[in-house]
């Protein structure tokens, strides 16, 4: 490190000596150096500027194109979502029609069952009424068949009463 400090110190010393040795440049010299510098580097700088301008323009065009494509993509996505939604709506409509048919079928079957139950109930009532009527006829017949007392005209009071069979 000590060596580097010495070298740096010497370099500073040499530079200070050079400053003192060179005369100050004149305005004409500065002007010529400036002109030479500009003549040497200006065409390249102008070409670089033109290239940068062209690049900037191309980037704008590319950006607009990408934005346009993004818009198309978004529209495509929206269209796909709409298509999916329409497919689902059709599926739900089909399911709804199936459920509607099933409900109509169930309603028809329940109506048939109600009619059948009513017929069975009427049949049972009819049978019960018939049984009751038969019972009454049987009872009436038994009452007619029961022996009835007949009065005979006889002199014996015990013989007066006899039963007719």
UniProtKB/TrEMBL annotation:
Basic and acidic residues composition bias: residue spans: 124-145
Disordered as annotated region, ranges: 116-165
Any one cellular-component term (Gene Ontology): transport vesicle
Name this protein carries in UniProt: Biogenesis of lysosome-related organelles complex 1 subunit 6
Species assigned in the record: Lingula anatina (Brachiopod)
């Amino acid at each position: 490190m000590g060596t580097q400090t010495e070298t740096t110190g010497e370099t500073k010393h040499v530079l200070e000596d050079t400053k003192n040795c060179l005369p100050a440049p004149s305005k004409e010299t500065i002007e010529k150096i400036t002109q030479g510098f500009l003549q040497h580097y200006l065409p390249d700088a102008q070409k670089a500027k033109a290239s940068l301008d062209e690049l900037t323009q191309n980037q704008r065009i590319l950006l607009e194109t990408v934005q346009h494509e993004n818009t198309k993509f978004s529209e495509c996505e929206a269209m796909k979502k709409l298509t999916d939604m329409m497919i689902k709506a059709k599926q739900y409509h089909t399911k709804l029609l199936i459920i509607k048919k099933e409900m109509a079928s169930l309603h028809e079957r329940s109506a048939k069952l109600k009619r059948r139950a009513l017929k069975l109930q009427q049949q049972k009532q009819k049978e019960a009424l018939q049984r009751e009527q038969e019972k009454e006829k049987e009872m009436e017949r038994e009452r007619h068949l029961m022996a009835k007392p007949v009065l005979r005209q006889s002199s014996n009071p015990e013989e007066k009463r006899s039963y007719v069979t």
